[in-house]
């Protein structure tokens, strides 16, 4: 599949980029996509939630009232969960939310996500660019030229580019990553996927191992 290569002003350069059918034209596997996105979201959880239970509460251990004759339920500890300030019953404990997926399934999920974006015609190929100095307004100008100023976009670079990354960091609806950082979640979370020419080879190399 061939796609026109644009410059940062949104104009056709007259060149075509070849997108491999093995990456951008497969039969999507929705279950693989689901598993990969589920793993990504699970890994965003720190798992440090913790509530103190009865044995961990600091408080007196004396019996707070006599056993009989009060007309109310018996109570032996101020740390009981039924009292304010007492321990929590079955409270949350630290947990590891990481999940394991094999590499082939993750590659299949990313290929499926790229294929879905290709079918939606949401992939743009742009020639490599850089800025003299990190400036948000320069990156905003690129977004406007490409018609992406009001859309959630993901820019994929071949190699890390500090100028482009810093210029986009303040924008809530745009993200800049390298081809090695590409994930199924980030592909699907963006309305438009902007691939720089230098990223194409890296993407295909990573997904065809």
From TrEMBL:
Residues 48-77 are annotated as: Disordered. It comes from the Bacteria. One of its GO terms (cellular component) is ribosome. Keywords: Ribonucleoprotein, Ribosomal protein, RNA-binding, rRNA-binding. InterPro entries: Ribosomal_uL4, Ribosomal_uL4-like, Ribosomal_uL4_dom_sf. The keyword Amino-acid biosynthesis does not apply. Belongs to the universal ribosomal protein uL4 family. One of the primary rRNA binding proteins, this protein initially binds near the 5'-end of the 23S rRNA. It is important during the early stages of 50S assembly. It makes multiple contacts with different domains of the 23S rRNA in the assembled 50S subunit and ribosome. Part of the 50S ribosomal subunit. This is Large ribosomal subunit protein uL4. It comes from Maribacter chungangensis. The gene is rplD.
């Amino acid at each position: 599949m061939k796609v026109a290569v644009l410059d940062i002003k949104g104009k056709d350069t007259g060149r075509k980029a070849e997108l491999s059918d093995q990456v951008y034209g497969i039969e999507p596997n929705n279950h693989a996509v689901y598993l990969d996105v589920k793993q990504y979201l699970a890994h965003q959880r720190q798992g440090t939630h913790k509530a103190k239970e009865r044995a961990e509460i600091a408080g007196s251990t004396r019996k707070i009232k006599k056993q009989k004759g009060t007309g109310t339920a018996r109570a032996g500890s101020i740390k009981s969960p039924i009292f304010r300030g007492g321990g929590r019953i079955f409270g949350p404990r630290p947990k590891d939310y990481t999940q394991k997926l094999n590499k082939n399934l993750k590659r299949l999920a990313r290929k499926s996500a790229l294929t879905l974006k290709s079918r939606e015609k949401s992939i743009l190929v742009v020639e490599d660019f850089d800025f003299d100095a990190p400036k948000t307004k320069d990156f905003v100008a690129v977004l406007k030229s490409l018609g992406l100023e009001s859309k959630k976009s993901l820019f994929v670079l071949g190699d890390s580019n500090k100028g482009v990354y810093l210029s986009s960091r303040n924008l809530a609806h745009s993200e800049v990553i390298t081809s090695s950082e590409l994930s199924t979640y980030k592909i699907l979370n963006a309305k438009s996927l902007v691939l720089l020419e230098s990223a194409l080879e890296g993407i295909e190399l990573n997904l065809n191992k």
